[in-house]
Structure formats: structure tokens, C-alpha cells
Design brief:
Blueprint (H helix, E strand, L loop, with lengths): L4 H11 L4 E6 L6 E7 L8 H11 L10 E7 L1 H4 L2
Helix pairs in contact: 1-2
Amino acid sequence: MPMPADEIERLIVSAIPDASVTITDLAGDGDHYAAKVVSASFAGVSRVKRHQQVYAALGGRMGGELHALQLQTAAPEEIAK
């Protein structure tokens, strides 16, 4: 069963409370999403570590309920550039 976009957002915000999350359904099938996650907690953190934080927030749902997630992560000051 596909995972709704609002559930993905809820899980990410639960783990990263200050995150601003934008979810886009890429294929219209509820299975392939893009997520843009902006959080002050990402400042000074490598892209790999940021992605690991987001995947950890999803609690093992990648590859199961959630087939594909294209991630873009940033700290707020990176967006302002």
C-alpha cells in the first residue's frame, strides 16, 4: 500500500521538529516522491548525514511502503544564497 505524502511529512517533522518539508508526488502513484527538507539542524552537517537523518525519521519504510524518495536537504542559510 502506498504511503501518503502527509505521512512522510509527519514522520520527518516528528524526528526533525524545526524542519520545513515539501513533498512532491513524482509519478502520481503514491510510491515515488521528492522531498525538500530545510532545517537549522543541518547547518555544518554533510549531505550524507542529513539524508541519514531523514531516512532514520522514516523508520525503515524505504523500500517497503515508500518505494523511492528523491531528497534535497538544506540549512535555512543555504536557501537564502
